[in-house]
Amino acid sequence: MKWVKLDQPLSESEISELEDQLGVKLPQDFVKWYKQYEGPESDFVAVDVNGEEHDVEDFLDPETIVEETRVFFDEREEYKDLGVVVPFAMDSISSEYCFFYPKGSKEPSGVFFRSRDVHLSDIFEGKDIKPSLYISRTFQGFLDKLYIDEDWA
């Protein structure tokens, strides 16, 4: 996979400010990638989510990550007690690729997919995200699963 480099790489202070606003420490593999790149070179990037192909249209800028994190639980406040969800990318219909930080955890439990039309009650199982929604336990694992869909190209 080839990546589009940022015109101006993000600085350590910009990453620190983002983490302060989110209230979490971002995974180092994400930070390393995110400081340099804005997304894939191809417009036809996909990932398998539980046997279904989904596109990866856009990696979010820091301001959008903060905003999407703030509104994630708007529809159901009771889920806020389970932890922090940090959306970092979207597909073409605004479904989200996210990190989930269980309450009290300094590390995310992985990268999961939330379809825009799925209610929060269908995402959580107990105090965690349903296992079938996880794509990878790490950001690098998520990147490794991305591929260029030749049928779309």
Automatic annotation (TrEMBL):
Classification lineage: Bacteria, Bacillati, Bacillota, Bacilli, Bacillales
Segments forming domain Knr4/Smi1-like: 9-145
Pfam families hit by this protein: SMI1_KNR4
TM stretches of this protein: none
Record's protein name: Knr4/Smi1-like domain-containing protein
Domain of life according to the entry: Bacteria
